[in-house]
Amino acid sequence: MIDLRDLPQAPGVYRFYDKNDRLLYIGKATSLRSRVSSYFRSSTALTLAKQQMVQQIVRFEYTVVTSSHEALLLETTLIKKHQPPYNIIMKDDKNYQYIHMTSDAFPRLETIRKLPETKSKRTGQYFGPYTSGLSVKRTLRLLKRIFRYCDTPPQEKNGELVLPKRPCLEYHTGRCSGACAGEVSATSYQKTMREIRHFFAGDYKPIAERLEHEMKEAAAHEQFERAARLRDQWQSIFQLMKEQHVVLPRRESADVFSLARLDSDAAVNVFLVRNGVLVHQQIFRVRNTLERTEQEILDAVHEQYMIAHPEPPKKVYLSYESRRGAYRKLLDMGARNAEEFLRAQLRLNTDRDARGRMRVQALSKVLGIHPDRLRRIEVYDISHHQGAFTVASMVVGINGMPKNSEYRHFTIKTVMKVDDFASMQEVMDRRLRHLKEYGAEGKNEWDRPDLIVIDGGKGQLSAAHEVFCIRKCDIPMISLAKREEEIFRVDNPEPIVLPRHSEALHYLQEMRDEAHRFAITFYRKKHTSAMRDA
User: Taking the model in full, what pTM does it have?
Assistant: First the structure.
């Protein structure tokens, strides 16, 4: 029985659970008592999806916070972490990146992956978010070409500005203004940073005018090398201006959200418009949208997106709103982009499915196992350096394609020396504990593999299979020896040698290499952490 009487009239985040203790929904509220109670009043008009959810709720939990902004931040963080089935979730497979302009006398431009949690902790200015490191690198490369900012400008120490020990490499190639060599004053450098801020706001015209003026002045004074450099900078910014398209009247700055749906899939296109000019576009897939209205989806995505946005514009346009003229045109263009994105994803998934089926069928012929019994394949690798920080990895292929969310790491606990055989035996024993027939329950249970692949030769395979024999486990197991790329089976001493062009071999090699990469990444993380703590 849900008891609502003790809920506080305070902002916070609430969580609903069903009879199996499954988290159903995470929500925020300016008043926990009013918001949570509204779900259970007959007078409240709930959407069909939320009506279905309410019928499953048997208990709830809540967290009190100090403000509605904190509630939004906590809600977004928890939704991303737990992925509840009744929350609309903006799916972004990548980590956001930002460009941070520090607040020093000589500001630096640096790439960061996470915004400070509250605005009070933020210093300087932040530009983004960018969904790929490539976008960040391209932007910084363009800024370097136009503004010749310095990577290692003077920094303040004990109240004094200190030059670096030597000028940066870019200074010697003419792509640095010379701040690192003491050739630029703080006042002049701050002016460059202001222009960079104009650049991020999409206001290119004053920058182009300044460069053109200085270029002509340098040419008039026969400073031809400087004039040529200024010409290159001017051409870069002029090219951007040529590509500009004014999409909103009155030079408005706004974020424009448009929704598209295709069968059970949904995507949201976001146009970033600054000073009336379209400067950036992002498209996100959205989950849990069945039986949800366009307004519900866009409102949820907008909230989640704004948390990641350091300086959101004052205006936001959403495609469910009634708009005319340029606004409607831009919203419709966003919807078309989102729809084309969904169609491209559908084509990609169809191609992936076809390739996966081909791989599984090829492997099934080699091993004599029916394709239906090769749905889940797990590949294991051991990694260490001279016996220190021994770790193992498990990577998973489902229907012939990698399933990253199922990957797992193991830290070897019982083997104190260099012994790959014993380490693999420990891993196999621990893997079996995650199967229901060997005692796993609830969250501790992992799906049963159809095939185990060991990175190694006969010795590694025999050691791993010994554990399965002791535990009376009949899951098929093979190994792939790296030197000759031979496949070993437990029931046959002779290896299988496949042609180099074999699709089955390519599949196993790809999975083996992925297991090795995943193990090495984990090993390096542990080694770096140990070095830091030493």
Answer: 0.68
End-to-end CA separation in angstroms for the chain: 52
Q: Are 262 and 346 in contact (CB under 8 A)?
A: yes
> In whole angstroms, how far apart are CA 218 and each of 225, 226, 228, 390, 517?
9, 7, 9, 63, 54
Contacts of 149 (CB under 8 A, 6+ apart): 109, 143, 176, 177, 192, 193, 196
**8 Å CB contact between 241 and 212:** no
Rg (CA), the chain: 29
Spell out the residues 6+ positions from residue 175 whose beta carbon is closer than 8 angstroms to its own.
144, 145, 148
3-state secondary structure of 257: strand
Whether the CB-CB separation of 342 and 332 falls below 8 Å is answered with no
Max CA pair span of the chain: 89
**Where does residue 270 rank: exposed (0-12), middle (13-18), buried (19+ CB within 10 A)?**
buried
Please give the Cα distance from 138 to 140 (Å, whole number): 6
Task: Quick: pLDDT tens for 402-420.
Answer: 999 899 999 988 888 888 8
**Cβ(13)–Cβ(27) below 8 Å:** yes
Question: What would the two tokens of residue 301 be?
Answer: 């995505």
Q: How, if at all, do strands 12-17 and 315-318 pair?
A: unpaired
Contacts of 17 (CB under 8 A, 6+ apart): 23, 24, 57, 58, 59, 60, 61
Using DSSP, state whether 355 is helix, strand or coil: helix
Domains and CATH numbers, the chain: 12-87 (3.40.1440.10), 97-200 (no CATH), 249-345 (no CATH), 375-533 (3.30.420.340)
Task: Read off the pLDDT of residues 463-503 as tens digits, 9 standing for 90 and up.
Answer: 999 999 999 999 999 999 987 899 999 988 889 999 989 99
**8 A C-beta contact, residue 379 and residue 515:** yes
CA distance 283 to 487: 43
Which contiguous run of DSSP H or E holds residue 453?
Answer: strand 451-455
Neighbouring-strand partners of residue 162: 155
